[in-house]
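Letters spell out the chain; backbone shape is given numerically. Both lines appear below:
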Amino acid sequence: MTGTGSDHTLRARLRALRPAAFGADAAGERWERILRSPNFADGVFVNPEPARHRPSGGAVEFAKVYFEKEARAKRAPAGRIPVHPTTVADLARPPATGLRLTWMGHSSVLAEIDGHRVLFDPVWGDRCSPFAFVGPKRLHPVPVPLAALGPVDVVVISHDHYDHLDLPTIKALAGTDTVFAVPLGVGAHLERWGVRAARIRELDWNESTTVRDLRLTATPARHFCGRGLRNQQHTLWASWAVEGPAHRIYHSGDTGYFPGFKDIGTAHGPFDATMIQLGAYSEYWPDIHMTPAEGLRAHLDLQGGGPHGVLLPIHWGTFNLAPHPWAEPGEWTKYEAEEAGQAVAFPRPGEPFEPAGKLPGEPWWREASHPIADPWRRPRSAEGVAEPSRGDLDLAGER
């Protein structure tokens, strides 16, 4: 532990002069609670397993790969992304099965579960950046205006990176009656942006809160945090398990693969649907984002080791954040799911679906993508058994 509560409060007041998009630092009782967290050590929040999150080959090498002309073209769609024309009527009609998911792009999902409406990581801004004029820009428009969603019972935030915690979106929601469920420290950002403290539920890993008859639990993830010029690791990152009277769902936030998915599944699963991050991966940050192969393995771990429930891929298609081709997460996930016999939903952005009903499965991204290579496909032996995929080798530690 470092510093006293009063020292940290003074520093927080001085930093209040910085741009609003950078958020605010924890102070007072919030900071004291962070200091008491079993997941906070030596002045920072720590991962369940150590994670490398800086380019292992160096910034220069990464920049060469990222800005290479031919690769740069493939990281963006070749044509218009087909956004589903979601209407207010679509969202006003209750789901017949009691559970409906609407992927709004990237990691933003509206979950209608057992009569409640939960909005995960809502990002309606044009850029995931502290500035309106620079930073990764949307590759498709938002499927539906935020105001057209109707009342939301809970907004769940996984962590404070700009592509998950968006200042314009939070300010728009600050005037509503929604409850905000967030990891430790993130509440300081929300309060600075106008959310009343009484509407914030701030949780450490494995802590729960209830909203009416929904139980929301912050579960571990393998990632990092930060919004300012200096990343001090003073806000927690989390995945989330949400349990209603009849259904259970899981949102991974951002995370690298780690064995703790099995523990989460044992404690809170199996799930009717999992929303799993499997885009924006790279060999330069192998431990903080998952490949589609790792994402599928995480889903299976959460379900007790076998195909169960529906996998909804998230964290892809909306922003250009990594060196891989834009459509690769879709193609790779489709391949891995077919190999495993796992039900997966591929909705267009804004397309509602019910996990217990007919799943959207058309590879819609092919309408807008460049041709891509498929190095993840596993050659088959003479006996017809698939050899390990690139993701499987990664998981075995052969990076």
Observations:
- The two ends are 33 Å apart (CA to CA).
- The chain has one domain: 5-395.
- The chain has eleven helices and 15 strands.
- The longest helix spans residues 328-340.
